[in-house]
Design goal:
Distance between the termini: 83 Å
Low-confidence stretches: none
Radius of gyration: 22 Å
Order of helices and strands: HEEHEHEHEHEHEHH
Mean pLDDT: 89
Largest sheet: 7 strands, mixed
Structural class: alpha/beta
């Protein structure tokens, strides 16, 4: 998208957000040449700090193709926040929809209009103990396969050192560096024109996240775990541990009661 079409609200947001970002973070940004100069596309970005959406938006703003982030549709309805969300062209997600594809209809329309839609496929801050991307939701793959648009994998690192996941206080000193590496489009051609089953979407999502993780490996100079962290498995294991502890306590209480009756 040419810069002349960025619009008042996005420029206004940039005026407010850029100065503190420039003060707080050094920049090591690479791969801007992979951001398409025109046409609709998706970026798939890892998420490891509450402030990385602002820092990532700064990166992409400087490419001339501003990102449109997905947000709950309720945020668009009223007040200054709603006006800002609408004015900057953010994308409402209609989670009340019973049709999974319809929930992303605004994102599909944005891509068809030639916009960039930025996805955080993980859906939340990573819970991987070492900050690697975890398993992802299928929204980005749904939109990509529906529109057949380019999907640009983007990895970032550094905001998590300034404000770690779920931390309340930033670590201001020493000054941190925001590192971004955008890669070439992910090849999803083998998934096109096929029935959009759960298995197909899962496989396409894994391909997208593998590309994002590969970019992060280059930034960090390390290898990611072979199996991404899966918060669903962690929740299952937590429930299992809780049930086991409950059963142990119940058996212990029963034993004490029986011993008391025996006396």
């Amino acid at each position: 998208m040419p810069r002349r079409r960025i619009g008042f609200w996005y420029r206004f947001a940039a005026v407010i957000c850029k100065p503190p970002l420039v003060v707080l973070l050094r920049r090591d940004w690479r791969g801007m040449e992979h951001i398409p100069a025109e046409g609709g596309f998706i970026t798939a970005v890892n998420h490891n700090s509450h402030i990385d959406p602002f820092a990532y938006a700064h990166f992409q703003y400087n490419t001339g193709r501003v990102p449109r982030f997905l947000a709950k549709s309720g945020l668009f309805k009223k007040g200054f926040v709603g006006a800002a969300m609408r004015g900057t062209g953010q994308i409402p997600v209609y989670r009340e929809s019973t049709d999974a594809l319809s929930a992303f209809r605004a994102a599909i329309e944005a891509v068809d209009r030639g916009e960039c839609v930025a996805f955080y496929p993980e859906g939340t801050l990573t819970r991987d103990p070492d900050g690697w991307p975890m398993t992802a939701k299928t929204g980005a793959a749904r939109v990509a396969l529906q529109t057949k648009c380019p999907v640009i994998p983007v990895a970032q690192w550094g905001c998590n050192e300034l404000l770690p996941p779920y931390a309340k206080k930033p670590h201001l000193l020493p000054r941190k560096t925001h590192r971004v590496l955008a890669g070439p489009p992910v090849d999803l051609a083998r998934f096109y024109d096929r029935e959009m089953t759960a298995d197909l979407l899962k496989e396409a999502t894994e391909v997208i996240m593998a590309a994002v993780t590969a970019q992060l490996e280059q930034i960090r100079g390390e290898k990611a775990p072979e199996t991404p962290y899966d918060p669903r498995l962690e929740r299952i294991e937590q429930r299992r541990r809780t049930q086991a502890q409950t059963q142990t306590h119940q058996k212990s209480g029963q034993t004490v009661q029986e011993e008391g009756l025996g006396k």
